[in-house]
Write a structure and sequence with these properties.
single chain, alpha+beta, Transferase(Phosphotransferase), domain 1, 6 helices
Length: 242
């Protein structure tokens, strides 16, 4: 992938001309597209209302505005301390996605990112290419899935870990499954490329808690400890084979 950076009156836009050949600031709002649709989902999979599908088929995009979560998010909605262009969340995530796409990993292709500076703070947005025919893992397990699926899921997670991909919030919503039962990872805000370490187990623990949480929200979902054990078997089998 190639990147182009264009300065704006209040910040900058980073984009790939092979994906979006012309970019402007209005592309980072619903009004800048002929069609827009706020992303919603079951079991809290729709995020915080900061994400929407934009554009028309056959190529649609996902536009996401960066917002804070947790206790800080109750006080400060969407602004971050500015410490340089390359350190902005949108530029860092765009470049991380670009590296992963170039490595053949199944992640959204980055299209454009921007930041808008306001004194010592900034707000940010990112546009990625929409992945067709995917649903969150939390929705995919509404139907029973066999051992082969869970084993392959663990194997696919290890594929990301093997090359040092740290996902800061690997949960049952950010793991998406396509119509060929393959794993895609979404939402790499605060993600990093790291050397192997204890973070690998911590992200697995995060997913484990998330799966229990979605099962608590809907007891009809098909998830048991046996499924988790099969996922781990796939993960560590890939680790031994690496």
């Amino acid at each position: 992938m190639t990147e182009t950076v264009e300065k704006t009156a209040t910040g900058a836009i980073l984009y790939d001309k092979s994906v979006i050949n012309r970019i402007s600031e209005d592309r980072f709002s619903a009004q800048g597209w002929p069609h827009s649709e706020v992303l919603t989902g079951q079991l809290r999979s729709g995020g915080r209302g900061n994400t929407m599908f934009v554009g028309n088929v056959p190529r649609q995009f996902v536009l996401r505005h960066y917002v804070r979560g947790g206790m800080v998010g109750k006080l400060v909605n969407d602004s971050y301390v500015y410490s340089g262009e390359d350190a902005t969340r949108s530029f860092r995530e765009w470049r991380m996605l670009a590296k992963m796409v170039d490595s053949g990993l199944r992640v959204p292709r980055p299209a454009a990112a921007r930041y808008v500076r306001r004194g010592t703070t900034y707000t940010a947005d990112i546009i990625t290419v929409r992945i067709p025919n995917v649903v969150p893992l939390s929705q995919y397990i509404a139907q029973p899935r066999d051992d082969e699926f869970w084993f392959a899921l663990g194997n696919a997670i290890h594929e990301f870990h093997r090359v040092g991909v740290f996902h800061a919030d690997m949960n049952a919503y950010n793991l998406q499954i396509d119509n060929r039962s393959r794993l895609w990872m979404l939402d790499f805000d605060k993600g990093r490329l790291r050397q192997p370490g204890t973070w690998q187990q911590k992200t697995l623990d995060r997913l484990h808690r998330s799966l229990h949480k979605v099962k608590d929200l809907d007891s009809r979902l098909h998830y048991t400890s046996l499924n988790w054990n099969m996922l781990l078997e796939g993960y560590f089998n890939a680790s031994r084979s690496a």
